[in-house]
Amino acid sequence: METDQLRLMCVHAHPDDESSKGAATMARYAAEGVDVLVVTLTDGSRGSVLNPAMDRPEVVDNITEIRAAEMEKARHILGVRQVFMGWVDSGLPEGDPLPPLPEGCFAVGDLEEQTRELVAVVRRERPHVMTTYDENGGYPHPDHIRCHQVAMAAFEAAGDPDRFPDVGEPWQPLKLYYNHTFHKDRLVALHEAMTGRGIESPYGEWLENWVDKPEDAERLTTRVPCSEYFPTRDQALIAHATQVDPTGRWFTCPIDLQQSVWPTEDFQLARSLVDTDLPEDDLFAGIRTKVAT
User: Fold this and answer.
1) Is residue 66 a contact partner of residue 242, using CB atoms and an 8 Å limit?
2) Distance between CA atoms of 231 and 2, rounded to whole angstroms?
3) CATH number of 7-182+218-290: 3.90.226.10, 2.60.120.620, 3.40.50.10320, 3.40.430.10?
4) What's the confidence (pLDDT) of residue 129?
5) How buried is residue 260: exposed, middle or buried, by Cβ count under 10 Å (0-12/13-18/19+)?
6) With b meaning 16 or more CB within 10 Å and e meaning fewer, what string describes 205-222?
7) Any idea where the domains of the chain sit in the sequence?
8) Which residue has better confidence, 239 or 213?
C-alpha cells in the first residue's frame, strides 16, 4: 500500500457536529500521529444561535463567518485538519406540515454532483477510514441524512476508475463507520450513575420516551477508548459558542463520572474491505498491519 501514515476522514454536516460526535476519538488518533481530517459539508448559515449569551444582532447577521471561525478554533483544539465543502445549510424545518426546504440548499442539491465533489476530496486525501452518520442521520435533520447519502456514495465511488475519472486517481477507503453517540446503553449508564451520585440527569425524559427498535440491537460494533480526551472534546464543543451553552445540560455530567462509567466513543462498522473481528476497539483494526508507518 502506497502510504506512510494512517489517515482518518470524518464527514460531518455542520460546523460543531465534529465536536459532538467522535471528537475525543479524533483527538486521540491525532495525538497518536494519525492524520485526521474533518470534512464539513455545509456552511452552517442557517444554524440558530443556541447559546443565549451569543444571541446578539451582530452575531445573527454574521453567523456564517462566525461559525467558520468557531470551527477553526475547535479544529486546533482537537489537533485535526478541516475543509469546508461550502454547500448551503438547509436549516431544520419546523411545523406541521413541514415547510419545503429552501431552494439551493444542500439537502435538495444534486446528489451525483455532491458525490463527485466529495470523491475528489477522498482521492486527494486518501483516507483509510471514513466516518459519517447512519441512514437516519443520527437524528432526522435533512443535512445529516444527505450527509449520510453523500458519504456512502463517495465511499463506494472513490475507488472505481469508471466513476468521475476527471477528479483524481482512484482511492478506495478500507472501512466506513457510523457515529453512534446517543444510544440507549450509554444514556442509561450515565443516567443511573448521575442519579446514584445525587445529580439531576438530563437524560431521564429522553429515556422515558425512548422507542426501542430491533435494528438498533446490532449497531454498536466498535468502542474506542478515549476518555483521556473527554476534556479536549468539551473544549472543542464550547469553542462553537453560537451553538453550545457552556452552562447547558450537556455539561452537567461530570467528566470523571463519564470516564469511569462509559470511557469510550462508539461506532457502527458499516463497510469493511478488510478482515476484522467484532467487537472492535480500534477504527484501524485490520488496517494497521497493511500500512507502513
Assistant:
1) yes
2) 35
3) 3.40.50.10320
4) 98
5) exposed
6) eeeeeeeeeeeeeebbbb
7) 7-182+218-290
8) 239
